[in-house]
Amino acid sequence: MNALLSKLTERVATPRRYTKDDGWWLVAMKEQYAEMKSAGGRDFAGAKPAKGPQRGTIEYSDLCIRGGGAQEELAEELGFPLPDDYRFFCSIFREYLIAGRSIIRLWDAEDIRDDIEGWDVPRNEPVTLFYFARLPQETARFALRRKPDGEVDVVFSWDYGDLGEPVISSDQEDKFRCDVSFSTWLERMIGTDGFPLFPGGSVPTSEGWGERDHLKPPTAT
Questions:
Q1: Which residues make Cβ contacts (< 8 Å) with residue 83, sequence separation at least 6?
Q2: Ranges of Basic and acidic residues compositional bias (predicted)?
């Protein structure tokens, strides 16, 4: 995990230039930067967006807000034992935005709690999904999943509602598994600039598999 944190530090210090006509991606990126900057205040870290020399060109680097985000406390409240790598990450970062070919926002505890309160799942059994990241303005989410044998992996789901906790947590539904651990997921996101969201490109949906190429901006330079 320490090696991954070094990669993150390096990435924050190296802005990347993206060329994109005004559209969902550029608008969403600007909104996320503004929201996280206002929320983080003095704890805000990372390069600010700067307009490039050409119209529709902008520079970004990963954006983080440092400081423990109470994810571990929330997990204990829910009875969901967090894996060591994710817990270590959360002890340093409250929020993190991967500003790459996909826009991926790692949630703090408040975001996670707000999401959980919207679930229509009886709580007479332990929580099996702990959503930790999402694509802004989209229903796509990444979650830690606790399987019946106690293993915790990372799953990806697109639809919200059709793909609920019982479906994704079923041991017959391993098609949602995208990475074996949080560290593996984070390293893949750093190495691929946040795309593809799911290994192989296609993503699991309630109706089978789907393509989401409309979310892929040009590769950074």
A1: 144, 152, 181, 182
A2: 209-221
**Is 220 inside a domain boundary?**
no
SS3 93: strand
Instruction: Determine, yes or no, domain membership for 53.
Output: no
Structure confidence by residue, pLDDT tens digits, 138-165: 888 999 999 888 899 999 988 766 777 7
Number of compact structural domains in the chain? 1
Q: What is the CATH number of the domain that holds 101?
A: 3.40.1580.10
CA dihedral 127, 1, 10, 17 (to 10 degrees): -40
What are φ and ψ of residue 78, in 5° steps?
A: -85, -10
pLDDT tens column, 165-205? 778 887 767 889 999 999 999 999 988 888 889 988 788 87
Task: Enter the pTM of the model.
Answer: 0.85
User: Treating both helix axes as pointing N-terminal to C-terminal, what angle do 109-116 and 71-78 enclose, rounded to 10 degrees?
Assistant: 30
Note whether residue 128 is domain-resident: yes
Label residue 214 exposed, middle or buried (CB < 10 Å: 0-12, 13-18, 19+).
exposed
